[in-house]
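User: Structure tokens for this complex, please. No commentary.
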Amino acid sequence: MQDKYFAFIASSYSITFLVLAGLIVWAFATHSSRRNALARLEEKGFSRVGKSD
Amino acid sequence: MSSMSETAPTLSTTKASRPRLSDLANPTRFLWLAERLLPFVWLITAILFAVGLWMSFAAPEDYQQGRTVRIMFIHVPSVWLAMFAYMVMVSAALGVLVWRHPLADVAARAAAPLGAAFTFLGLVTGSIWGRPMWGTWWVWDARLTSFLVLLIIYLGLMALWRAMEEPADAARPSAIMILVGAINIPIIKFSVDWWNTLHQPASVFRAGGPTMTSEFLIPLMIMALAFSFLFLALHLMVMRNEIYRRRIRTLQRKAARAAGRAKTNPETA
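Assistant:
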């Protein structure tokens, strides 16, 4: 009788998984690209005046 | 990579040699601390999700909701985190306006996309649960509508930040907008008490204790803890990314100025 609810439960968990996994991938990918961009700029000799800002 | 492998920044101390909380206002110290905290936070998140998901699917069927009660184990934490993320933004907005805390604007900006994602999940999972239980995907009742307004507020704030290129210019207007939008949080919380809604009243945080049995309450609380640790991990990561973005922006400006000088006066370049 309860099998008719399977699609509702599966879709809820799937959407949640996709959204949360998307957030995690986005955060890691952004971190990686910004770290590389910052390193490239620093290699070119540009650095911040105050390291505490 | 000089700034990437920074050594432990020195924290100024009180007479009792205790580090002050305000010392963490320094972005470099924050980055150092985040770098060390994140592996533990991710590990705890993974363990909590493994245990929480196992308990969610091992939980018995509800006598009214049947197996759809399992949707509650992701819907309720999403809703809590959506509102918690906004309260983080409210605290950060106060930090911007009152104390001009260097990391406060960064914290507010980092919490917005996470809050929007949890709000979206709360709306979608609630709608999916509502179809078999209420017989409809959506009703314009006070709880659902005020929660939709929360998503619109999040999207509006993110649009404001994108529209204003200079972070310093966007900080104060966005902080004011966050504080104005905070009126929606008690409306969401008490909407089920103030108006006659299809949405059920509070069943966990209420006077007289939770109405649900431990078979459902324990997996729910573990999933809520898992969602909270995930929020913490993501918030630290997105804050770190925002600090990097601002540093890249500063260095790009320096690079552009140096290139401009080289163009106008090649000898001094």
